[in-house]
């Protein structure tokens, strides 16, 4: 999100190539706001044509630049700047003191609850048990199949 924030803050159109995490969402938002284009990483493997086309589109189509500059102006003209918001809430806390509504619930959780260990540990345990059962069944089936192939046919005695 940092590069998207920087580019929109400066009013620069983007070419997004999402690789992991939130980058796919960021690329979708860039396309939705019409401030840039998205190229899939698979397209880059196939050749450079998609990237060259995207660069030409961004350079030749002024709508991306106009939309990026408009979004930048909107960000800069935000009704309340982050510094003002920090000052407002600091003054609020100084005036009214401690308030339960401003206290984060997660601060009072114990370690097991905070890290969801009460869910993760049983899930890992079940996965290990399931893995053991599958291995056990595969061994039994493999043993049975191998015993069928390795068994010697009984000869008829006359």
Automatic annotation (TrEMBL):
Catalytic activity: glucuronate acceptor + UDP-alpha-D-glucuronate = acceptor beta-D-glucuronoside + UDP + H(+)
Enzyme Commission number: 2.4.1.17
Pfam families for this protein: UDPGT
Organism listed in the record: Acrobeloides nanus
Molecular function GO labels: glucuronosyltransferase activity
Transmembrane residue ranges: 112-138
Record Gene3D superfamilies: Glycogen Phosphorylase B (3.40.50.2000)
Domain of life the protein comes from: Eukaryota
Keywords recorded for this protein, A-Z: Glycosyltransferase, Membrane, Transferase, Transmembrane, Transmembrane helix
Family named by the database record: Belongs to the UDP-glycosyltransferase family.
Lineage: Eukaryota, Metazoa, Ecdysozoa, Nematoda, Chromadorea
Name the UniProt record assigns to this protein: glucuronosyltransferase
